[in-house]
């Protein structure tokens, strides 16, 4: 099953995001211990097209519990970068 993770940063989190960026990228390089696969992911940006304001993931997983465990273990979550995280099932129609 596919799941979308939509995570919006808390106000003023950009310096903390940048300080934890390498740890976050390393974490994403191997998701096998959570039983999930990243289909695609990347930062959400403000209208200037550059300033990172959150994260978006499309995850393939057996169920929600695996996605929740994966999300909780992300260094960005541990650093308190995200203000609001929504995990929603997703049905692929195109692409």
TrEMBL record:
SUPFAM superfamilies: Dimeric alpha+beta barrel (SSF54909). Residues 1-90 form the YCII-related domain. It comes from the Bacteria. Belongs to the YciI family. This is YCII-related domain-containing protein. It comes from Bradyrhizobium nitroreducens.
